Amino acid sequence: MSSVKPEKLERKIRILVAKPGLDGHDRGALILSRAFRDAGMEVIYSGLLPTPDDVAQMAIDEDVDVVAMSLLNGAHMTAFPMVGRILKEKGARDILLVGGGIIPEEDKKLLQKDGITGNFGPGTPLKTIIDHIIERVRKERWKLK
User: Fold this and answer.
1) Which residues are CB-neighbours of 80 under 8 A, at least 6 positions away?
2) Which end of the chain is more exposed for a tag (fewer CB within 10 A), N or C?
3) Distance from CA of residue 49 to its chain's centroid?
């Protein structure tokens, strides 16, 4: 169980936790899903092995505020930006993207330029990830200060 206390939010953040591509390591995604739920978010989990197109369509269909993507297989530079491109092509530019997994520092900067923020690695405190998502959603999605 997460030790993160629920924060009083204006409304529940809808978050899709996704593992786009060929990565069957779901323990971290499941831990994050529970932590997001415990923090007061409404969580949708993509399950294992969705394509980037599947992830983007799920995000649109579920009307999420943010997609939290995780990969441990080194495909983050392909799969994460692809989800972002597909969302833009489908007119969903306002859905925020947050990344995580085994991501080298130089790749984090490139992902950031593509609008994929966070890019948290193993061992990042759950509160750090949750706070990042809440701050981005409030400022960029809900347009609150």
Assistant:
1) 20, 69, 71, 97, 99, 111, 114, 116
2) C
3) 15
Delineate the domains of the chain, giving CATH numbers in brackets.
15-141 (3.40.50.280)
Q: How many CB atoms lie within 10 A of CB 141?
A: 16
Q: What is the pLDDT of residues 13-65, one digit of tens each?
A: 999 999 997 777 888 899 999 999 999 999 999 998 899 999 999 999 999 99
Composition of the chain by helix, strand, coil, percent to 5: 40, 20, 40
DSSP H helical segments within the chain, as ranges?
27-38, 52-61, 76-89, 105-113, 126-136
Instruction: State the virtual CA torsion across 34, 38, 44, 50 in degrees, nearest 10.
Output: -30
CA-closest candidate to residue 24, choices 72, 74, 67? 72
